[in-house]
Design a protein that fits this description.
- Helix content is 27%, strand content 23%.
- The chain is built from 5 helices and 8 strands.
- The radius of gyration is 14 Å and the shape is globular.
Length: 162
C-alpha cells in the first residue's frame, strides 16, 4: 500500500468526505482493476467487490452506471428494460469523458456528470463491500447502505434469468 494518494484517488477521497462517508481510500502496489485482482489484494470475497460498469443509452447517449457484485455479469437486455432504453457497454473514451475516470478505476462517486445508477441487489448480503476509488490500484470500503445513499442508485437485479 502507498502512503500518499495520487491526485485521482485523492479526488475520490475528497468526494467521500464531502458526502460524509468515513471510508479511507487505499492504494495498492498490485492492480485492483478486475474484481478478482481487487479481492486478492484486499483479502475479501470476489462477491464483495462492487464493480462499476458504465453503459450508454443508445437513443439518448446518457451514461448508466451499474454497480455490480464482482461475481455477477450484467444482462444488458435486463439493464435496458430497467431504464426503458436499449444500452451498450461504453468504450474507454466514453467512460473517461462521462465519469472522469479510466475503466478499471471508476468509483461510485465523484463523476464529472450525473449518471443513472443501478445497484446490484446481491451486494446487500454483505456488511462490507469494496469499490474502485479512481485508479486501477485504489479502493474504498463501504457498506451497501452507504453506497445507495451516496449514489442515489436504485437497487435492482441486473442478472438475467438463467
Amino acid at each position: 500500500m502507498a502512503d500518499a494518494l495520487n491526485a485521482t484517488a485523492q479526488r475520490v477521497q475528497d468526494a467521500l468526505k464531502a458526502l460524509c462517508v468515513p471510508s479511507q481510500v487505499v492504494e495498492f502496489s498490485a492492480s485492483t482493476r478486475s474484481a478478482a485482482e481487487a479481492a486478492q489484494a484486499i483479502g475479501c470475497r470476489v462477491e464483495q467487490i462492487a464493480k462499476s460498469l458504465v453503459f450508454r443509452g443508445l437513443s439518448t447517449n446518457r451514461p448508466v452506471l451499474a454497480i455490480v457484485s464482482g461475481a455477477n455479469r450484467v444482462d444488458e437486455k435486463r439493464l435496458g428494460e430497467l431504464i426503458a432504453e436499449v444500452v451498450a457497454k461504453a468504450d474507454a473514451d466514453y467512460v473517461r469523458q462521462r465519469t472522469g475516470y479510466a475503466i478499471g478505476g471508476v468509483p461510485p462517486v465523484g463523476h464529472v456528470e450525473s449518471l443513472v445508477c443501478l445497484i446490484d441487489e446481491d451486494l446487500f448480503q454483505y456488511d462490507t463491500i469494496w469499490a474502485a476509488a479512481g485508479t486501477p490500484r485504489a479502493v474504498c470500503r463501504l457498506t451497501p447502505a452507504e453506497l445507495q445513499r451516496i449514489t442515489g442508485g436504485r437497487v435492482v437485479s441486473v442478472k438475467g434469468v438463467r
